[in-house]
Amino acid sequence: MDALNNAGSDQFPPSLWRDLADQLPQLAWISDRDGRALWFNKRALDYLGLKPEEMIGNGWFKALHPDARAGTVETWRQALEHGIPYECHYALRRHDGVYRDFLARAEPHRGAGGEIDYWFGTTTDVTDQRAEQETARRAAEEIEAIYATAPVGLTVLDKEMRFVRINERMAELNGIPAADHLGKSVRELLPALADQAESALQRVFAGEDIIGLELSGETPAAPGAVRTWRENWLPMRAANGEITAVAISAEEVTASKAAERALARSEAQFRTLAEAIPGMLFVTDSDGGNRYVNETFATFSGLPKEQLLGKGWLQLLHPDDRDRTLAAWADANAQDRPYEVEYRLRNHAGDYRWIAARALRIPASDGEGGEQWVGTCIDIHDSKVAEQELRESEARVRIASDHSDVSFWDVDLVHHTVVWPKRLRAMLGIFSDRPVSLQDFYDTIHPDDSERVITAFAATMDPDRRAVYDVDYRAIGKEDGIVRWVTAKGRGLFDAEGRCVQVLGTAVDITQRKQAEEDVRRSEERYRALFNSMEQGFCIINLSFDEDGQPCDHRFVEINPAFSRQSGLPQDVLNKSIHDVVPGLDNSWTERYGEVLRTGHSKRFVDYAEPLGRWFEVYAFPLGRAAENNVALLFSDVTERMEREEALRRSENELRLRLNAIPQMVWSTLPDGYHDFYNDRWYEFTGTPLGSTDGEGWNGMFHPEDQAQAWARWNESLATGQPYEIEYRLRHHTGSYRWVLGRALPIRNEAGEIVRWMGTCTDIDDRIAADRALRDSEARLRAILEAVPVGLMFADSSGRLTGWNHQIAEFLGHDLVESSRVEDYRDDYVAFHGDGRQVESDEYPLARALAGEARPELEVRVRRGDGSLRWLRYVAAAIRDEQSGEITGGVVASIDVDRERRLTEGLEREVEKVIAEREVAQEALRQSQKLEAMGQLTGGVAHDFNNLLTPIIGSLDLLQRKQILDERTGRLVEGALASAEKARVLVQRLLAFARRQPLKPQAIDLRRVVSEMSELVDSTSGPRIRVVTDLPDSLPAALADGNQLEMALLNLSVNARDAMPEGGTLSIGARSEEAGAGTKLGLPAQPHVVLSVSDTGTGMDEETRRRAIEPFFSTKGLGKGTGLGLSMVHGLAAQLGGALDIRSAHGMGTTIELWLPLAAEAAASNVASGSEPDAHGAGTVMLVDDEELVRASTAGMLADLGYRVVEADCGEAALSLVADGLVPSLLITDQLMPGLSGTDLAVRLRERFAGLPVLVVSGYADLESLSPAFPHLSKPFRQAELAAALEKVTV
């Protein structure tokens, strides 16, 4: 390059050559006709970081990427062989070791005879251009991947509500192929949604962003079914900001809405040991932040320990050592190996001292917060300084020899050894440390110079001539093949006998000098080739100035061939004013060039030339003397690049807009899993600052118990390229953890390589909670189904059996067969009519119910597994869809009636006919005992049902009062609570029937009783009996027991039904009677209320009417009645101070009236108070119950009322807690428990704590039989009832 300084030409002065060659942004080069590189510009040398002698010939190949060498050499060979222009893409290594993509082009320069003299070429960096193209391509692929992989529907609508774009998921939701959407409007394809969509479209085009919009309606995907979608509608804008379309994302939430209706996750250090260690000790996290440092560390630094924790210790680290130290730390973490590094730390005196640090990883134990590193720091400063001084001493010696331009050499002819320093070895192309010989010297001499050099060296060794060795020659590098010019001088040393024993000399590399001599000759040709071959436009302009010295115009002095290609201007612009060449061009261009002349500094800028419609990147620098007013311009047309950048920006904006339109959290990573993008939904959900979860920061958002599994699954996907899918808990911005579904798919390029991962996170916490609640509910239902003494079987609408309980298997005596259709019932469950005929498939009640028949029944003899026959009664019902009413399945109940049928058909019937009146009394006794047993059984069953109903009513009551439910779920809870209340009433009725319920007279509204019971009477009377009621608008309250009165009404209605076997009318009425109207029945002269039941049946003769109220008198036949119904009603009337009046005649029907006294007060409303009890409790409640669900439900109510609750599952456990020091403020205990009863426990605790408030809770309704010393509360109860009972107890 030095030779260029000496180049000269009248037309192209050396200054222009240097300026132009050095200012080119490309790498410029010249090679000989055989393709060997002869010259590179300064840009090439600076970029590659190589010396000229290292690059000439084929030396520049070492900068080529290994994968590109073969293709590059072959393309270059083809151009040389055929003399055609050369063009090739390859990667070059920059001086810092980074490879970048380049486009190389070269043209042959031919002599007058047409032969190629040399090649001139340029190499242009196209990395950024390729990266922009690749980014744009990837952005397009990412958009397509999002459309293809997003778990939600995506579409774009124009102003006319026409579909512009749609993904398969949205098409699937609509039930219409994607291709059939395009160009058609919502109103054409989805008319049921059109009005809602049009309203939303108008809002978006008015500038509104709509998030979480819910649309409902029918689509072709499910005709007749109303479905619901949650959608985001966001505007899409053009470059000028105008809204041109709407981006929509939709997620179907029909299923989750249905699910709502169904039921709505220390560190310990040895500090004493650490402080005893004389060295500096530290404990750090995997991110390099200190958790602990010992006192020695603090003493060394002169800082408090607190300032050394976290990343605080980095303030002590020498700035020059920071990057190296942190890189070593990252490598130790990544490679899972000990951390060892040497660096300088500032001590308390402010001096930096060398430290040797070493640390080992301590894996995290279960329950700890992550892995740790424990390490020590040892002061090695003194030994480090000594080593450095030794190395510097040795280096000075090597530098003197290896880096001097003059190298010495020594040939020992006696011992046959040759000494060549490193510098000389490099001159001769020998880079290894192997010993060299005189033959190596001979081998490196160029063949054309060999004879001359060897002759001169021989003359030096000749005793007679003893000539001075002084030659210039070419040496061919023995290992690299590079030809270098060497000038060598030397002299021989002779012994006393005249023999040459040693030759000493020096050598200098003069390649550059020789090259410069050649360059002088060819510089002019090279400049012209460079000038004409460069890709950039080049011109020299001369500036003109106005009277004020401001630049006002410039004209073109010289241009290159590329000038027109880059600018679009013709070649005839020389010596023309810019105002003539480009009219209307803003004067700011000329002002910039004036600034270059004024300051003498070059200027680089990018600007748009509006008259030419092009973007230019310009490099302007002063040329020649300042007085000449010349500026040289290197410029390129970058219009395409600017348009690509603008397109890329638009594409990125569109991508971000679409990603933010998706209701899920969307994220993206690099191929190695590094997270570099999250949409707005992520930050809204997590509440984290923008960018804080990039990289590995997202892992800290997982629940600690889920982190290991989520990491393992993610690493597996990264390693295998398989899709990523996992459910885990993610920290919400509220601080709680919510379940999400994470999914990700790899995006691949054309070569199949993964270039990015796109993923989503969907909040499924509500669904998980609903599923869990549904499972709990189903488990409770299964328990109840297994507990009832009735066989149950379930089928779908086709008749396929889908489930059963264990009782039916016991009845049938064999494993159940999963019949797949109705037609299989005959063979799978063989049964016979009473006349011996086999029951056909369509005769089974389940088949009849599925066909639409209402409540079909059938008594049959079924064949059991052992071949025996057993009488069963089948009763079936259809299961219908709540909305459509369509039959979706059926259930059949099986009741064992074998004993009754056999009694009816056997000899017992005949025996009973001849039993004497004595047997009647015995039968009465047996019936009484049976009734007593039934009462005991019913009381026990009612106790169990009350225990089941207590947590159900308590939990539903708690949900309703919290007011945290949406409207639809609230209705579901309200319905469930109403059903549970009905169950409570049913239990009370059972107890009344079994005489387990004490008589509790109170004010009763007969109109309400009749209205509520009429539905039950109607359902039990059958289709042939018409039930009518006659009730006045107002009626005074009667004094009666509500449950007993309902049972009496039911008994009278059943009797009336049985009296009408062929059908008829059953009338129920109520009226008030004035004082004295009941005197004929023996009643006092006071007003009464009368309840009447009439039928149009067979009636009774006088004898039957007279005996009707006798206990155990019945006209229904054996096994069809107890004879106690009217007797019970008569007893009830007498107990209440009323009377029973029976009017009947044979064939004329019957009317029975129940006269009841009036109540002193009005009837209480039957509507449960919806007011929420005040949370007024204080103190500690000891809660004792052997039923876990009842205990848990009651504890929740008490906690909600403000009490502290201590639970025990039996009386003995409660006494144990008291013995351990518990002092309760209140005792709430179940009455019947294993071991101590509730009252026994209360007595014992009262002995220890006098005046202790006590509330006894029981599932038996007969509370009056319990100890009157303690207040009682009957199960089930609501929180309001519990609060009221506690208020009475604690007053």
TrEMBL record:
Ranges where the PAS domain occurs: 13-83, 139-208, 266-323, 777-813
Catalytic activity: ATP + protein L-histidine = ADP + protein N-phospho-L-histidine
Domain called Response regulatory: residue spans: 1180-1290
Domain Histidine kinase: 940-1160
EC number: 2.7.13.3
InterPro entries, per database record: CheY-like_superfamily, HATPase_C_sf, HATPase_dom, His_kinase_dom, HisK_dim/P_dom, HisK_dim/P_sf, PAC, PAS
Modification 4-aspartylphosphate occurs at: 1230
Alphabetic keyword roster: Coiled coil, Kinase, Phosphoprotein, Transferase
UniProt keyword Kinase present: yes
PROSITE patterns associated with the record: HIS_KIN, PAC, PAS, RESPONSE_REGULATORY
Domain PAC: 86-138, 339-392, 469-522, 724-776, 856-909
Coiled coil: 897-931
Designated name of the protein: histidine kinase
Organism of origin: Sphingomonas kaistensis
Classification lineage: Bacteria, Pseudomonadati, Pseudomonadota, Alphaproteobacteria, Sphingomonadales
